[in-house]
Amino acid sequence: MSRYLLRRLIGMVVVIFLVLTIAFVLVRLAPGDPASLLLGPDATPDEVVALRRRLGLDQPILVQYATFVGNALQGNLGESLFFNQPVTQVLASRAEPTAFLALFSLLVALVIATPIGIWAAYRRGSVLDQGSITTAMLAASVPSFLTGLIFQRYLATDLGWFPASGYGGAGAGFGTRMWHLVLPSITLGITNSALILRFTRASMLDILGEDYVRTARAKGMTERRVVLRHALKNAGIPIITVIGLTFALLVSGAVVTERVFNLPGMGNLVVNAVLRRDYPVIQGTLIVVAGLYVLVNLLTDLLYLVVDKRVKY
Amino acid sequence: MAAASPAIAAPSFRKLLFQRPAVVVALVVFVLIVAACFLLPTLGVTEIGGMSVRKRLTPPGAEYWLGADAFGRDLLGRLLVAGQTSLGIGLGVAVISSAVGIVIGLAAGFFRRLDTPLSRLIDAMMAFPDILLALSLVAIFGGTMVNVILALSVVYAPRIARIVRASTLVIRELPYVEAARALGTRTPRIMVTHVLRNIMSPILVQATFIFAYAMLAEAGLSFLGVGVDPRIPTWGIMVNEGRRYIDTAFFLILFPGAAIALSVLSLQIVGDGLRDALDPRLAKET
């Protein structure tokens, strides 16, 4: 157990290190000199040289790399070219809508997918089963921006049930802000429910064929109890795995969904950074998101130990 | 293992692929979409000849089956031309990411020394969400069609590499590979004839899914305004253009959006059918 944990932690450190390296290399491959980019077209050559020195760009590339990794590990991801603020500060100020959007849409996806997945597995081969698989595939095939735009047009603009876009404006209370996340969360939740539904169904199918389920039935246990107590409990592991996997989907989806609903989150920030060529912000977002992904997947692995006593590493 | 006994596998593969009506329908739909996009424009169904202020935002009807866009161009013709780019990008990404993934995966699975570094690199690449990584790559190298295809190939190649590596590790230990080695067969030849040929099925299945994901991702990038040059229409760009008329002409969003969804859905169903037919052991997963 502790050896496994140690191995996982070392693996994680290596991956994080590679993530930092990829992020460093990527931005260095960008055409143009960062200092001239920062100063704009009107800068004199002397100013560019001075700034290059201040940013450490006159150092050998390996020294620059070491400084970059050292700074990143201390939580310093550089300065935004557009905001003239530390990247971490810029990211932190945009974290709230993205974090709640991801959380709510995961909840929406679980609420839609888990009961249908269990039911579909229980009634394997039935019309409901076939229908649910096809619907799940459709949900995964419709681009989330299309779902979002349909909701925006019909549920928000026409019916006026939900706010169509934005985050409530400056000084909006917490309730108002969350209210603006309802439609985006449903949009993103529907897209992500597809994968969870298929995983839930597949793992329930496996378990419903197990001997202990047959034994439970033979004992005369009610069907409801068999499915909910014996089967669902053991289907927990694959469902946790899929939550780890959907993290990447949630982030990608959040980028598009935030754009549709004009939410001031990290997704919208990174798209604007791309349009403004604000490389430090792009770099910082990549590092933070990839770091979170690695962390989430480590946590889901550790959760197995809690959920399933049979798992021993 | 389907390819191990081709004489038996070949007829049953076709039977297995076509036994589910949904797979047949999906295959027909996808072929029809491709045929429409590449054949109809050559037969004269194009947007060209149609910029007309009077006709702008005409709703779908007898004159324009799918309506006309903000410049009065026939939406159907534009949809077909845009489809060529969207489908082309999907196919390009599927082919390039498979090729790159096969090379990396075979190297990792075959040479023990390369395994750990390559596997960690794959892990690190897969830690970046697809749209985010593609977005950054396009931002850095510029939004041309070639760059979008290359960026998405970088995003999806690790998925193929992971599958190739896992399959190679299994096959490398099989008796016939050992026999080939004992006979003095060179390593590159073993890798291609004995290993690669036997793992083509999972690669083909995954490539079909990547075709679908790449189309979705390209649509996402174009929708965000950072995809290919906006003068070259793709379905994602058409949706983005239509956003300005969301309240007055929703069909401008709906039709290209539906074209993406229909193509991706049919590809995914075909991919599922392929997986079941090539590896019947996995059939219950669907």
Short description:
The complex is a heterodimer of chains A (313) and B (286). Chain A has helices at residues 2-28, 34-39, 45-55, 61-73, 87-93, 95-122, 127-141, 144-158, 174-179, 182-208, 211-218, 223-234, 236-260, 266-276, 279-307.
Q: Can you tag this structure with a few keywords?
A:
heterodimer, A: 313 residues, mainly alpha, globular, B: 286 residues, 11 helices, 70% helix, 0% strand, elongated, disordered N terminus
Largest interface comes to: A-B, 51 and 50 residues
Oligomer: heterodimer
* Strand proportion of chain B: under 5%
Question: What characterizes the major β-sheet of chain B?
Answer: none
Q: Distance between termini of chain B?
A: 19 Å
Structural category of chain A is mainly alpha
- Write down how many β-strands of chain B occur, each being a DSSP E stretch of 2 or more residues: 0
Amino-to-carboxy terminus distance of chain A: 5 Å
Average pLDDT reading of chain A: 83
Measured by DSSP, the beta-strand proportion of chain A falls in: under 5%
Low-confidence stretches of chain A: none
Order of helices and strands of chain B: HHHHHHHHHHH
